Structure formats: structure tokens, C-alpha cells
Amino acid sequence: MEQKKILIIGLVWPEPESSAAGTRIVQLIKLFHRTGYHISFASAASKSEFSYDLKGLQVTEYPIRLNDSGFNELIKTLQPDMVLYDRFMVEEQYGWRVHQECPGALKILDTEDLHFLRQARQLAIKTGHTNLYSDLAKREIAAILRCDLSLIISEMEITLLKEQFRIDPSLLHYLPFLEEELTETQVRNWKSFEEREGFTFIGNFLHEPNWHAVQVLKTKIWPLLRRKIPGAGLHIYGAYPSQKVIQLHNAKEHFYVHGRAKDAREAIEKHRILLAPVQFGAGVKGKFIDAMQTGTPSVTTTIGAEAMKGNLDWNGAIEDQEENFIQKAIQLYQHKDLWTQARENGINILNQRYANVHNGMGLIKTLQDLSATSELHRQHNFIGQILQHQSLNSTKYMSLWIEEKMRLDPGKEHKN
Fold first, then answer.
1. 3-class DSSP state for residue 192?
2. Helix (H/G/I), strand (E/B), else coil: 335
3. Domain co-membership, 116 together with 137
4. Which neighbouring-strand residues pair with 308?
5. C-alpha to C-alpha distance for 106 and 392, rounded to whole angstroms
6. Does 333 lie in the same domain as 225?
7. How far apart are CA 35 and CA 105, in angstroms?
């Protein structure tokens, strides 16, 4: 059988040690690698010292440029069977070029989370009003409709798209984080209750909900909590901390800002409880997966735990009121029996909802079926065909216009 080829177009080069988004895309790459795909990865972003070694997974890397017809030549040469867009902005930028040069290729969108939902919740914090029907929502849902399949990480977001926006279920595929099942040996090797000290938070600071959560910890949660547990510290980890984050460090208050953790799970496991008073966001949160993988209970909000536990008991406590949040954190910190039960709950959540054998192979089977019935599938999604029509493809003509301007004035790109 001829080897299937997939091209993944990344918003950035993956950094799994920096963010859950980076972890997600690497998990997908590993899934395609295990199932025998020839994988190419292209991105217009610059690499950093934290970029993942894709070549170790036999991935061929291609630096590309925005608004550049060189991408058309690349994809004509590659002739992939499938193209996966890492977030809807990537589909906006490259989707029309893929459609033009490889119309038969399956188009897959990995949403990471619904950006318009995260934006709506953030604005609701400031204004008190939630507006899901924003321009961002129109753009993101248009990208979903233009693709053959969109990977959705949250069951709540699947329900929202189907019920609120009437998206056909055949265009959506639920795919959570793909985690290894926890073994008895791993659990035995976890640090004990007595070996751990203090509280922790972790999150990439380029992600606004993380910065906001740390502000809540600093100004509302920690001043009260530390009085109840004298001597305990709160340890903040996260990639790309700005100066405003670093300035929150205060040893006298036992509030420690450490910056990037070399290994997120090793950092979390030093501490007894993960605190994450997340006020807005979307998708599911990688920090809780990391906590469960290290046997670390967590206290969070309804938004923080959204779509993560199904009908199972949470790995700690879910509280939206600050007073209750603090009380549950104290109880878990001081009572070993509650703490032990919480991490048992985490084992159940991981092994029942995130173990990757079932979830990953479900996606591969769906893609195989789609490949065999793509023409019929696209006829069923006629709205998607309308959105591919050139008269509605404004991003295409904007891109061509920018490309022509750069051709006439090559230095323009560097002046701006």
C-alpha cells in the first residue's frame, strides 16, 4: 500500500515544553508517525531554542513565508493526501492556496480551542455581557466549514458548535489530549504527600487567561490563603513571562515567580496542590493533565475544569467563589486522606478519558473513511463549497495584493 502523505502547517514551530498547544500538535505528529504517514511540517514562524526536534520523528521541515506563491510551488511538489491546519488563522492564510493546487487533498483543521469562545469570555469579564456572534466567530466558523474535518478538544465546544451554530456533526471530530495510560509503577514512583511542599501554578504567559489567573492568585487568593497555612509558598512557573509577571515575585510573601520550568511535570510534582483560578478561556487545560500525570491534586474553577472530567469526580476541587476556593485548598493541603482520594480521581480521569489508544485510532479510522468518501462528504457540506468560491474568498485576494506589493518593493517587508 502506498504511504499516505500529510502536510501540517503550523502557526508556530511546536514547543511542547512551553504550552499545551505545542504538546497537542506533537501528540498529533506522533500519532501520524506511528500509523505510517509521511509527515511534512511547514511554518512561517521563526524557530526558537525551545522548538521540538521534529526530525527525530522523521518529519521533513519546510520554512515558508506569508503571502508568498512559493508555497504554491511547494505544495504542488509535495502533493499531500491530507493537509492539517494548526488553528483557523493558518487555514485563512493558506487554505485557498491548498484548494487551488491540491483540491483533492483532505483538509483538516485542529482548532486547539475555539478562539471566539475564549475572546467572548474574556470580554464578558470586562463588560458583563457575553457575545458569541462576533466577527472572530464568523471567521473561525467559516474556516471550520471550508475544511473536511475539524478536530475539537472539548466536548462542550462540540455541543456549542452543533446546537448554537448548527454545524453538521460530520464536520467535527472530538479529539482530547492523547495521553499514555498511567501504570502502577508510575503511580508508586510519585512523590508522597509528605515529600511535597506548598502550592503551584503553571501556564504559558503569552496566553492571557494564565496572566489573569496569576493576578487573581496574587491579589485575592494568596493573601488570605497564606495566613491560614503559615510557611507554605506559592510557586509560579511558565514560559515567556513578561516583566509585569516577574515583578510579582515577593519572597517575603512566599510568592515565588520562577519563570520557565525545564520540565513542567517535574516542577509540579514538587508541590502538594496546583491552584488555577481560571476566569476565562476555552478548550481544555494542559496544566491539569500535567498535574494528574504527577499525582498532584488541583483546585480550579468551573471554566478551568470545563469538559475535562466527564461524569467522573475531579482531581481535587472545583470552586468559583473565592472563599470556597481557599477553603478547599486548605482542606486538601492539610488532610492526607482527601489529598490521596483526589489523586485517585485524577488517575481515573486520565485512564478513562485520555488514554490515547482508543482516541487516536478513532481519528485514523475517521480519516480513512473520509478519504474513501470525500466527494460525497463535500457535496453534503455545500455551504463549505460556497465559502471556497472565489467571489467570497477575500483572504485570497488580500494575500495576492500583499504579495504583489512586496514584489514591486522588495524592501517593504523589512521596513514594516
1. coil
2. coil
3. yes
4. none
5. 21
6. yes
7. 18
Q: Are residues 210 and 172 in the same domain?
A: no
Distance separating alpha carbons of residues 288 and 297, to the nearest angstrom: 9
Count up the domains in the chain and report the number: 2
Verify that 273 and 288 share a domain, yes or no.
yes
Asked whether 257 and 249 are in contact (CB, 8 A), the reply is yes
Statement to judge: residues 59 and 128 lie in one domain: yes
Give the CATH number of the domain where residue 391 resides.
3.40.50.2000
**Which amino acid would we find at residue 271?**
H
**Which helix (H) or strand (E) is 294 found in, with range?**
none
Are 369 and 316 found together in one domain? no
Contact between 265 and 249 under an 8 Å Cβ cutoff? The reply is no
Whether the Cβ atoms of residue 348 and residue 312 lie closer than 8 Å to each other: yes
3-state secondary structure 11-39: CCCCCCCCCHHHHHHHHHHHHHHHCCCEE
Best CA proximity match to 95, nearest among 24, 145, 45, 54: 145
In 3-state terms, what secondary structure has residue 104?
coil
- Enter the C-alpha cell of residue 237: 512557573
224 and 347 assigned to the same domain:
yes
DSSP 282: -
Backbone angles phi, psi at 23, to 5 degrees: -60, -45
* Cα-based torsion angle of the residue sequence 139, 144, 145, 148 in order, rounded to the nearest 10 degrees: 150
- Separation of alpha carbons 153 and 156, rounded Å: 9
pLDDT at residue 176 in the model: 95
For residue 210, what are the domain limits?
A: 184-354
Spatial CA neighbour of 278 closest among 295, 260, 299, 256: 299
In angstroms, rounded to a whole number, what is the distance separating the alpha carbons of residues 271 and 265?
11
pLDDT at position 305 = 97
Residue type, position 50, single letter? F
Domain finish residue from 304, 336, 354: 354
More confident: 118 or 411: 118
Alpha-carbon gap, residue 272 to 384, rounded angstroms: 49
Q: What is the pLDDT of residues 146-201, one digit of tens each?
A: 999 999 999 999 999 999 999 999 999 999 999 999 999 999 999 999 999 999 99
Among 304, 324, 354, where does a domain finish?
354
Contact 118, 281 (CB under 8 A): yes
Reading the block at residue 245, the C-alpha cell is 509577571
Task: Decide: helix, strand or coil at residue 128.
Answer: coil
Q: Do 167 and 188 lie in a common domain? A: no
